[in-house]
Each structure stands twice: as structure tokens, then as C-alpha cells.
Amino acid sequence: MRRLARVALLCLGCAVCSLLYGLSQLALSLEQEPGGGRERQAREPATPGARRQAGSAGRGEAGTGRYDYMKTHPSEKMHLAVVACGERLEETVTMLRSAIIFSIKPLHFHIFAEDQLHESFKDILEEFPYEGKVNYTLYPITFPSESAAEWKKLFKPCASQRLFLPLILKNVDSLLYVDTDILFLRPVDDIWSFLRKFNSTQIAAMAPEHEEPRIGWYNRFARHPYYGVTGINSGVMLMNMTRIRRKYFKNDMTPVRLQWGEILMPLLKKYKLNITWGDQDLLNIMFFHNPESLYVFPCQWNYRPDHCIYGSNCKAAEEEGIFILHGNRGVYHDDKQPTFRAVYEAIKNYSFGDDLVHSLLQPLERELQKTTHTYCGRVYKVFIKQLTKSIRDLYARRSKGR
């Protein structure tokens, strides 16, 4: 009997230990960060002086459970990077303004700029009414020393800086890179939520270069491999940088897979006489060989003049409106596409704290109605459809938070 009692006691102890282990594993799984797949995203070290603000709940469409996630992770910070050179100061500031207006969770801007622009950025950004919502870091333009001149002159000045962000921002787990000519017409939170939709192999997300192959550039003119049917556009690029730094990429230069920092220069050396769009072409080549690594955005997350100047060819924008406007080819600053310029001017001139309906939306709609003689102007309502909803949702969140 005594022996049986000992055996029973031993079995009971083993059962208790197994239960405790199971509970600990369950607790660990609940702590996983968003980003999809089996990899656990690295936690960002605390930034000195960083200010955090709890996100507010509200209504939204992008990403099922987005606001449920925000309730349990209210202080998650979104990281946004931009590269500004030459005459891009005003354009960059306008982009940052658009990000601030509607976003919910805290934002950290990583601004890579030429040295002569740093003081101007500081003067302007310090005047923004952040309300504890935003902080920023300014960085110089830097390339690998042995090839800096070659990288800097690729396509446009400083454009290829984006290729080196995973190697420079080593403590940043996930990042949204955007060109300076981007305007957010809905919260950054919504595109950030796509990180949780990545499967176990996906490391980045971009939108197609074209929706209509008959007007596509890559499928008609490219002299190098490119992703998918019409290529991808790198003006809006969401990255899980932890995965990018860990991945070994297939390539057409060696049977050995190479990491991000190892593959960039060999790609440039092989294709530099065949690429037109610089770093974007290199990304197309990379994801041609590694298509399983890319998540593709719908076109309304990177809406460009090509989506309307040949007739409307972004059906998703017709249905839901434009989420992110991309005014490439300088259309914010000339008269070729007045619809794009009208949106840019409206956001640039909006004063923080003013009523968004009377000071932004209504004046913009009046200006857009003057552009109906153009192809893009004929579909001007897609330019304000989502903006109208974003303003309504913002005021609804504010009223709930009172």
C-alpha cells in the first residue's frame, strides 16, 4: 500500500508539472506580436524620450479584428520611413501631415535627408501639435562606403537609400517605407495591419505597377526579370525587416542563396545597364526569384496617375475610394493632373485643429469639380470617397473617447 501511495503521488506530481508547462506555453503564444507566420517579431528596445499614447477604438474596414488588436496592444508604435533629397522638403512634410491627421496608434518617423535639410525639418516638425502621438529621428544619407557614389546616382538622388533600411535600422522590426509624394487618405494603422496577414514566407508588401497589361511598362519594355504580370511599384513598401534580415534569397547569379546585405551589389553589377527605374527594378528582380516572399496590395493602396489618365483601371478604388495617393512624375507641382494637385494643396494648407469638413473636405471637393475636363477629374469622387469616411470615423472616435 505504501508503495502504491508513492507511485500515485509521483504520478500526481508529473500531472501538475505537465499542466504548469502547458499553461506557460499558452501564455507565451498569447504574447506573439502581429506579423503572421511562425516567426516571432523582435521587440523594439525602448527609445530614449519616446512618447506613447494609447490608441482609441473605432470603426474600420481594413484587417479583420484591427481594433480588437489595438485594445490589447494600445501602445504599439508604427514606424514610417521616408528619404528626402533636393527640393523634397515641402512634399515630405505634407506627406507626414497626412499620416498624422488620421492615424490612431503612435507614429515614429524615420527621416533620411541630406544634411542641409535637417534644420528645416526640425523647425517644422517641432511646430506640429503632436499631442504625444508622434516622434521622429533624422538620419544622414548613407551608403556602403566602397560603392556610395554608384548607389547615390542610381535613378534619382538618394532614391536607393530605401534598399539599405533593413541594414541601418537594425532595431526596428517592421517598417512602412513611402516615397515623399505619398498622401494618406485613411489611417496608417490600416496598411500597418497587413503585417498580420503575412504568411510564414512573406517579408514585404507592395502594389502592382499596373492593373492593365496593355499599358504596363515592365511587360512591354523591361530588359530584366520582374515580379508577376506587370511588375511591382516600390513607392509604398511595408516590410517585416526582421524576416528580411534573416532570409536567404534565391538569385540568378550563384546557386548559393544570399542575404539582403550580400545580394544588392551583385544585382546592381549584373543589371545596371538594363535597369531604368533603379532600386525599384532591383526589387522586381529580387521578388521575381522569390515570389513567395511578397504580399501584394490592392491598387487603392498605391493609386497613381496611371490608374486614371488612360481611363479608370483601379476597380477597387471605384468601389471603396483611394486609400493612399501617389503623385509620381511631379504631378503635385504642375498642371498636368489637377486632381492630384488639388488633394496635395488641400492637405498642405490644412491647419491642424481646424474642422476637417469645412477646412479640408468641402474646399477640396469644390476644386475637384473644376477638373472634370480631365480623365482623372471625371472620376474625382474616388479621390474623396475614402477621405470622407476617414473624417467621419475620426470624429466618431473622438466622440466615443469623451
What's this, in brief?
By secondary structure, the protein is α/β, with parallel strands linked by helices.
Output the keywords.
alpha/beta, 16 helices, 12% strand
Structure description:
By secondary structure, this protein is α/β, with parallel strands linked by helices. The chain has 16 helices and 9 strands. The model is unreliable at 19-74 (pLDDT under 50). The protein has helices spanning 2-30, 66-72, 89-102, 118-125, 148-152, 165-168, 188-192, 218-221, 241-246, 260-271, 279-289, 315-320, 338-349, 356-368, 375-378, 382-400, and strands at residues 78-84, 107-113, 134-139, 174-178, 182-184, 204-208, 232-240, 294-296, 324-326. The protein is 40% helix and 12% strand. It is globular. The strands form 2 sheets. A 7-stranded mixed beta sheet has the order 3-2-1-4-7-6-8, with helices on both faces.
